[in-house]
Amino acid sequence: MRASFPVAPLGATQLAGRRCTPTISQTPAATPSQRLAPLARRPLAALPEDASARVTEVVEAVAQPTPAPAPEDAPASPSPLAEELAAEAGSAATARAAQQQQQAEQAAAALTAEVLQREVARRRNFAIISHPDAGKTTMTEKLLLYGGAIHEAGEVKARKSSRSATSDWMELEKQRGISITSTALTFEFGGCQLNLLDTPGHQDFSEDTYRTLAAADNAVLLVDGAKGIEPQTRKLFAVARMRGLPVFTFVNKMDRPALNGFEIIEQLEKEFGLQSYPVNWPIGSGDRFVGVYHRPSQKVVMYEKSGAAGRAKGARRSEYALTDPELPSLMEPDLWEQLQEDVELLEVLGDELDMDGVMAGKVTPVFFGSAMNNFGVELFLQTFVEQAARPGPASTRQGVDVAPTSPNFTGLVFKLQANMDPKHRDKVAFVRVVSGKFEKGMKVRVARSGRTVTLAAPQRMFANERQTVQEGFAGDVIGLTNPGAFAIGDTLVTGPTLAFPPIPTFSPELFAYLRCAPNQKKPFLKGVEGLLGEGAVQVLYSTDEYITDPVLAAVGQLQFEVVQYRMKDEYGVDTTLEPLQYCVARWVKGGWPALEGVGRLFNTTVMKDVYDRPVLLFRNEFALQQVLGEHGPKLGELSPFALPPDV
């Protein structure tokens, strides 16, 4: 049964009006839902319950408010339900994105931490220290041979040699056959990356050696087997001990007549208080040097000389167990008897190496061999990679230790070098990475000045050859083009500002004015700024404003010669030196106010350093003591070394 709804009939006029002329009313036309709403409230009679319910559902559905149609050019607005669902979906998507971002960051942090741990664990950083002519440059190049960094070594034997050392890049070094500057060399061996800091062996350059040791984690002490411990060896070892470095000793030149191994061990203990642990032991010396006994493996490693041993990668070698019945026939009878006696004596010294003592610098592993003929070099390198100290925590002036795996990058500027590339008048800052990851193009802050510097062109140095570096980790040494922002001892940071202990400047012993012709003043000043800014030679200035010539202050005469040579070779300037009759320098801790309170000082000249601090020059130690006796209380402390201004 259908429900009937009364509908009022429309007249013809109304129909005509609707068809022809639209009617404009004051109130808007009722929507279908508004017209049906009253009907939905009327009782439904004579309908079955299920039919009534269905009609009610239809009417209620139709009775829902229907929005007015929007203009065709207006965008359709979403319904509240759609907006709510979209909001919920957006929130869920945002939450998922945030969760994914957090997971990605955690994964990246875990990956970065893992990478840092792995890369730091495979770094070995060391410097070689020795007396001049102990074979340091030859040893350096044989290590590079085994690391695959070079394929043929350049012997440094005399000025007439056709080759020059790979690590010697300055022309003067090649001419004289000595190392004057420090060089950073990198090579791979045994799954590890080794960073070798090649230091000057000449006695005049101990200060540059000290700066280089400030960036090293280990020291390799090279001893001439024929001469034993020499004066410069003592001086350089004292520097290594100040740094608390583990020391590995290699007794070189065993292919020449040499001291007995026990004599050298005794010298190490008497001179340095070092307990020695021979890792290998020489069998003969000079022409009768046939090999070494390797204690950890209890094997005898025999060497056979070859014509190319000096330049090729390794002499021919063969290994035999100490109990091998063939071994006695491979050497002369007296050498076999001496070897048996030595092995018994070595057992008395102990069978195990105290690694805690090695890391504390109290015990030194000792190796014997010949770098020239590659006898024992590979054995040394294998043991060194296993036992050498990895990059460790570094103390700061603030008393905080910085871990090498810290996510924040920190670095120490330990050396400046000008004009390594003859085609460009550049200045390179050598930086030791202390913590974190170095990346090309990163921005760092110089702790001393607060200046932000972009490291856009990092390089790895191989003598004067360069290779662009994309990344670096603790223990690596990286060369940065110095825009004048860096000084020796600067700390570079990306995180919180901190500073590592400064590298001191020691008292020089020779002083001289450096002068040039008036028409060369411009290149002269450029050369002074470029070369002397490296710190290899200290620079002082007169307090007399009319005297503008710099005063060179050096430890040895050769430093003066190097400066003059480089001024001529790199800047085309002829210079003259006017020596000053002083040999002692002291910095006034109280500064200029302390000097003004004292008045005039006799037998003393007052200079100023590059930081405008007063420096007193004395003719001898007696003159120093005389001034201290007369003006000590007013003058205050006089220091034999100076540190850069604090951060």
From TrEMBL:
Does the entry feature the keyword GTP-binding, yes or no?
yes
Could you tell me where this protein is found in the cell? Cytoplasm
Keywords, sorted A to Z = Cytoplasm, GTP-binding, Nucleotide-binding, Protein biosynthesis
> In its keyword annotation, does this UniProt entry include Nucleotide-binding?
yes
Output one GO MF annotation. Answer: translation release factor activity, codon nonspecific
Q: Provide the Tr-type G domain boundaries.
A: 121-392
Q: Which GO terms describe its cellular component?
A: cytosol
Family indicated by similarity? Belongs to the TRAFAC class translation factor GTPase superfamily. Classic translation factor GTPase family. PrfC subfamily.
Identification of the protein by name = Tr-type G domain-containing protein
